[in-house]
Design brief:
It is globular and about 75 Å long. The chain folds into three domains: 182 residues, Aminopeptidase, CATH 3.40.630.30; 68 residues; 72 residues, no CATH class. The chain is built from ten helices and 13 strands. Helix 6 packs across helix 7. It is of the alpha+beta class. Strand 10 and strand 11 form a beta hairpin.
Length: 333
């Protein structure tokens, strides 16, 4: 079981976040000063992601983090950070607008320092194009202890870069960057078509969730499917590199073009997906009318009135047999 539950922060979490910021024994980095203005200021500025972490065992709030597509530097225009990086730093990686996010703020309880890695992984899973997370550390200046940043835990999983003007002897109190590389925390994944030789590994993976498939189809149904060369079927596997530098199967996909589109259009709301069809340029098409079950849309607020509850009792099994309100035609190209 996962030690932490990671999710996006919501407006209802403001009270808990306000208590976490004022809790003793917390570590943090970023600009914490605006957070002390009260809970109404927590969500005042734009952030790409606001992530919080709950302890799975106790459901207690243990961490909160903010990520954005530009750094939290007041004097730097939001669209000039790439020029700022290339001018002030000599970086060993290629950073662009698309592959980087800035880790602008994080606060977590000191006894749960491992939550930092889990939060970063969650963001990287959400953003498949992001390769680097960048945290900016400002030069040291004397200030009250509750405003002092802590980068010790972040430094363990990142590389530290200093500006070009940095000098150990003459100028060692400068700005610095902590850059987390995606592929240090997450393994690289490669995809390929499944082979008959993958039969045992794939069946062992599927047997964990669907043991009945092996009982019904036998011990070699994957190899038989691959060797059958079904034009409507494609089997794909994904491999990762383990600590021993050996590839191991991590994902298996069984794709099929043999789909009953009418079934899904009749029973599910597929309008936002173009009813699963796409016209081909230069080819003729026709319309087909069908009747699908639907319900009358209502405002959310109206679902909790006394009249709505009486209607619910009247049309469900509590007050009688359930009824279908209406039927509307659906158009398919």
């Amino acid at each position: 079981m996962n030690q932490f539950q990671i999710r996006l922060a919501q407006a209802g979490d403001q009270d808990g976040l306000n208590k976490l910021i004022r809790s003793p024994g917390v570590k943090w980095f970023g600009n914490i000063r605006p957070k002390f203005r009260g809970k109404d200021s927590l969500f005042h500025s734009y952030q790409t992601y606001r992530i919080l972490a709950l302890c799975t065992e106790s459901s207690a709030l243990v961490a909160y983090a903010e990520f954005r597509n530009y750094p939290s530097i007041a004097a730097l225009p939001t669209d000039c950070w790439l020029e700022w990086l290339s001018t002030r730093y000599c970086l060993s990686m290629s950073i662009s607008w698309l592959n980087a996010l800035f880790f602008n703020f994080c606060i977590y309880k000191s006894e749960h320092s491992t939550v930092l890695v889990e939060i970063i992984k969650d963001v990287l899973y959400r953003e498949s194009r992001v390769w680097f997370l960048i945290a900016v550390r400002i030069p040291y200046m004397p200030q009250p202890i509750h405003f002092v940043e802590t980068f010790d835990d972040l430094e363990k999983i990142s590389k530290v870069f200093y500006p070009l003007e940095y000098s150990m002897d003459k100028n060692n109190n400068t700005q610095s960057l902590y850059i987390v590389d995606r592929f240090v925390l997450l393994p690289r994944i490669s995809y390929r078509k499944a082979l008959a030789e993958d039969n045992d590994d794939i069946i062992a993976m599927q047997e964990v969730e669907n043991p009945e498939m092996r009982e019904e189809l036998g011990d070699y149904y994957i190899a038989e499917e691959v060797m059958g060369q079904n034009p409507k079927s494609m089997l794909v596997v994904a491999e990762t590199i383990n600590q021993s530098e050996q590839s191991e199967m991590a994902i298996f996909l069984w794709l099929s073009s043999d789909i009953d589109i009418m079934f899904y259009v009749r029973n599910y709301q597929m309008e936002q997906f173009g009813n699963l069809v796409k016209p081909a340029d230069g080819r003729s098409f026709h319309y087909e009318t069908m009747t699908v079950s639907s319900v009358q849309r209502r405002a959310e607020a109206s679902m909790f009135t006394a009249d709505a509850l009486e209607d619910l009792d009247a049309v469900t099994i509590l007050g009688g047999l359930q009824k279908v309100d209406s039927a509307w035609p659906a158009w398919v190209r």
